[in-house]
Amino acid sequence: MSIFSSAAVRALAPHLVDLVKGVLPLFTPEREAAEAPPEQVDDVQQRQISELQQAATLQATAIRELAERSEASMRALEAELARQKRLTQAALAVAVVAALLAVWALLR
To answer: How far, in Å, CA of 44 to CA of 61, rounded?
Structure first.
């Protein structure tokens, strides 16, 4: 089974924008920290740390939501697989009965 099944793609599609936003630079540029006066370097670093913490929190939330949706998709796929197995077993039973009836009719 391909990892890129339609159910997996549908589950991941709404989160692609969030994932792309997560890898784009969201932080205070390094040159701003380098160009800041010595008394403001701590403020710039503090702001960078805060931005990093916020980005990590947002990514953790997005990953958690993605995991929940993936888990729900997997449960739905497993339920469909169980249904397909039952249908296959029923079809096999009908085929066996039909084959036995055909053999019985030939021997009679």
So the answer is: 26
- SS3 of residue 17 by DSSP: helix
- 17-64 confidence digits (pLDDT tens): 776 666 555 566 666 666 767 777 778 888 888 889 999 999 999 999
The string of DSSP letters for 38-105 reads GGGHHHHHHHHHHHHHHHHHHHHHHHHHHHHHHHHHHHHHHHHHHHHHHHHHHHHHHHHHHHHHHHHH
Q: With contact defined as beta carbons under 8 Å apart, do 58 and 4 qualify? A: no
Q: Is the pTM of this model over 0.70?
A: no
